[in-house]
Amino acid sequence: MGKSERDPMARYELLSREEMIRLLEARDRRDATRFGLVWEANEVERERAMHARRDRGA
Q: What total number of domains does the chain contain?
């Protein structure tokens, strides 16, 4: 059994700061879509657009 199999953190030890940031950003995007947060964000944008049109008198 190798070190990475015994220590789950071992696979992250060799990552650079930039690689770790990219990994975390990708995980955040994945988790956001898993829980529907992207849909909610899209809904907020749609509502803003509707209100903007209404306020302009369209």
A: 1
